[in-house]
Amino acid sequence: MCGIAGWVSFDSDLTQQQRVLDAMTETMACRGPDGRGTFVRTHGALGHRRLAIIDLPGGAQPMSVSTPSGDIGMVYSGETYNFTELRAELTALGHTFRTDSDTEVVLHGYLQWGESVVDHLNGMYAFAIWDQRTEKLVMIRDRMGIKPFYYYPTPDGVLFGSEPKAILANPLARKVVDSEGLRELFSFTKTPGWSLWKGMYEVLPGTLVTVDRNGIHERTYWRLDPVEHTDNQEDTVARVRELMTDIVDRQLISDVPRCVLLSGGLDSSAITGLAAARLARDGEQLRTFSVDFVNQEQNFVPDEMRDTPDSPFVREVAQLVGSAHEDVLLNPADLSDLAVRRAVITARDIPAGLGDMDSSLYLLFKAIRAQSTVALSGESADEVFGGYRWFHDEVALKADTFPWMAFNTPLTGEGRWQVLNPELRQNLALDGYIADQYATAVAEVGHLDGESEVEHRMRTVCHLHLTRFVRALLDRKDRASMAVGLEVRVPFCDHRLVEYVYNTPWSLKTFDGREKSLLRHATKHVLPQSVVERVKSPYPSTQDPGYAANLQQLVKEILSEKDSPVFQLVDRAWLENAVTHDPQRMESMTRAGLDRAVDLHTWLDIYSPELLLD
Prior knowledge:
The protein is 41% helix and 17% strand. By secondary structure, it is an alpha/beta fold. A hairpin with a 3-residue loop joins strand 2 and strand 3 (44-50). The two termini are 40 Å apart.
């Protein structure tokens, strides 16, 4: 896991631009605290910051090979989980290796297969290759979009990086945010390719982008296609169990300490049980970590999203598998610390507005990093297996919009835009933007002939989650973890599992009358019964009114700034009213609005973007 950056310019000599390349690369220092390097040729320059995971002494980057026609250099972020098999295959084809790293295997894969190397990879990755033989840049991102990757076209080439901040460090990139960028920020539709920054784009998941003297070219190498499912229920459960076991085994490979994020839900508990069983065969004890809030269990009150606290289930799982478990306990002061918020927003490059859920994730990862460098996560199981409550809510399923928009949450429910400046809200026309994005997203879904109405609808819903919703969550987890130099792996995003379960009929996904039937039955052999029966509960959020009170104090300080640019975006009158609410009785939507305002203010202070508002 690492940070990458680079620059292609066909009209200038980049060997004279080392200082700028270094500045771009250094913005990735948190992603790669263990080493740095650059590869510079006349028209192509690559920068790399390394987080050492595999082959600690031998995996330094950029990696390059020399050929009679020119050098080939590569910078790589991520992990290729099948690199051992690929190394054997390439060795049989005549390749020799100097290191034991997966990066060198990918580079030699490019030498052997060219751009088709992507068809051979199982993993999470974002990498760039400058091929001097043809003066071409090749940028490749993993199938599910686990690893971030951005690019910024220039008049004579392109800038690229793991994160926007790497690109913004180059003088050619303008820090401009326009209304189109803000529409997506406030809408939560995860428009493919969006980056917030005008003129900057994501390399789409499952996509290969090449840059040469003829311009920028894009090719999709993987997509979710409909395939008829022929396995019966028993065989389907067995196949899911087989895949999950193999995936977890592969993703435990590491030359540094690893652990599992354990929330006490089905998803993380399944990973925990499988990982503990695998390590036990080698005589190792698994480490697990959870996040919790001071007095949360004692004072827990069920709400619209969470029926139970996590802690009792965490304890049961840790006791069953015998893990060395640690709870990271946080209080309102930790969660509302402005320095933590600045770190989160700097990591994400956007004011996401998730408040304590972002702060707690960052602090959890920071605590874990003191003891482990790799963590396995249960992220994405709900998108793959159909776990969210709106998958099972008739109103949400029949609404002519994204299902998560029809469910009343602080991020997606009615009133979520009340904090915005009324004039801005009117100009952005967010409802129309969401409707347009929904129509575009639905039109991209392929279907099988003869699908029933239910199967047709649920395939569409699953596709929306796997190509839209999950990408926002993966980006959040990557940014928060890499901000502290922690690699988080997501077994449920293995493309083999995603393809198989995606094409499993909805009737099989819910065969026991509950959500995530396949996962529950495939992994129940490693779970306590309480977790097998537990209802879905999302990532925790503090219920302590002290957090709301601290938010109000932060907003009062913002209100004291008469000319703050934040009031181009947020409604001063709404904030003035919100800070008078009793924090003991504050509605979740009001608290979310305060969080959004503080995030926007902090982001403007850090980045000083040029705002182009219609």
